[in-house]
Amino acid sequence: MKQPKPWVKSALELGPVILFFAVFMLFRDDTVSVMGRDYGAFVFATLIFVPVLVASTLVLWRLTGKLAPMQIATLVLVLVFGGLSVWLNDPRFFKMKPTIIYLLFAAILAVALVSRRNWLGAVLSEALPMTDAGWRKLTFRMMAMFLALAVANELVWRLMSESSWVWFKTFGLPLLLFVFLMANAGLYREHALEKPQEEPQDGE
């Protein structure tokens, strides 16, 4: 199946998050009435975000023919916790969603380490070919990172303002993930697999 252009894929993945941020910032000082029920800005933004994420994920699936396990898990948890926040008109459930996601990923990586399974490599080996030792180190580091992000999310949403959490979720968490990936550049180089040299053609 033909792969979508990179900008289309990025728009489908990041668009719902940016929309959530924009809707929250636009209505953060208001109460919005939907079908006779009043919502604060956060829950109203969640009400918009959930169906948009479902639609963008379905479009991405249609274009690529597949979804990553992380995308499926994220979609399910968004439906569950986002739906609870809207249904109960309580933003706490949606704020807890990143914590659950990060703990789930940390648990999966912990099982991979204990069982000596290279699940991370099975997903990323084409983009990042490394030795088994390299994948074990990266698996442990990513497990620790997800645990740290889960703790950070809990601290921010419980101790700081709603606006602070929205900024943290929209920009802080992606930035921390980017810094983590860049910080492991040395590991990628140290454990990179050498590309097999091509056989010389006859007559060369």
TrEMBL record:
Source organism, top-level taxon = Bacteria
Location(s), subcellular = Cell inner membrane
Keyword field: Cell inner membrane, Cell membrane, Membrane, Transmembrane, Transmembrane helix
One Pfam family matching this protein: IspA
Classify the protein's membrane topology as the record does.
Multi-pass membrane protein
Q: Which cellular component appears as one GO term in the record?
A: plasma membrane
Q: Carries keyword Iron?
A: no
Q: Which residues cross the membrane?
A: 7-27, 39-61, 68-88, 100-119, 140-160, 166-187
Is Membrane among the key words of this record?
yes
* Function, in words: Plays a role in cell envelope biogenesis, maintenance of cell envelope integrity and membrane homeostasis.
Q: Report the PANTHER family cross-referenced here.
A: INNER MEMBRANE-SPANNING PROTEIN YCIB, INTRACELLULAR SEPTATION PROTEIN A-RELATED
Q: Which HAMAP family match?
A: YciB
By sequence similarity, the record places it as follows: Belongs to the YciB family.
- Protein name in UniProt: Inner membrane-spanning protein YciB
Give the originating organism. Answer: Paracoccus siganidrum
